[in-house]
Amino acid sequence: xxxxxxxxxxxxxxxxxxxxxxxxxxxxxxxxxxxxxxxxxxxxxxxxxxxxxxxxxxxxxxxxxxxxxxxxxxxxxxxxxxxxxxxxxxxxxxxxxxxxxxxxxxxxxxxxxxxxxxxxxxxxxxxxxxxxxxxxxxxxxxxxxxxxxxxxxxxxxxxxxxxxxxxxxxxxxxxxxxxxxxxxxxxxxxxxxxxxxxxxxxxxxxxxxxxxxxxxxxxxxxxxxxxxxxxxxxxxxxxxxxxxxxxxxxxxxxxxxxxxxxxxxxxxxxxxxxxxxxxxxxxxxx
Length: 286
Hints:
With about 290 residues, this protein is an alpha/beta fold. It is about 50% helix and about 10% strand. A hairpin with a 4-residue loop joins strand 2 and strand 3. The protein is elongated and about 75 Å long.
């Protein structure tokens, strides 16, 4: 690395740090990438800072297309044009494409820290596998009968709550979304009741959310929905009463990002309801 390049990189990192666009960890990471890249440059340092900082802002990566040609934060530094930036990055030994074992992964215009790229792949693979798999031991006739009783048709329009419950009962994965007051909680409670009714054996069920507050809200919302539905005792007895945080449910190992329960050692409940998974960290989701 030439003295001029070193000076330019150090000046850029100081400006990013002074403006609050980057913190100390981002700066040290970018300096490490430049030392090991084989082709250090201010453009590489900037990309590394942004990729590192994005993870602490709740993002899994930085999309360089959204930053290219723009002034970065309050630093006064203008990012390079996208095509030029990508050419610089693809020449760096510290950056690889999808599947490479490099500190940074460039996929299209998205730049990831390797660990976060791997997390995203693991989550995507798991969701796709579950989405294409039917729930085990589902008696379709019993499900249709239960759906007609729990969701009596009262209008000609499609009953999307009924559709959501049907998918939740018959598939290995269901994602239920909607704005406030659209009936998500009632739909989930009815789906759990149907599962308890049609299952040939008692089911272990669990409720979870990313944070303690979210878990408390989920627990209270489902408690109210259960009371409103006036469930038969043998069904009500199978439904979960308490919600846990994801960390507690998975058995977080102190001082690490690992959990006691994972792909090779799955959770015992046959049915798991997770609220607000969007707010879980990538490591937890993976």
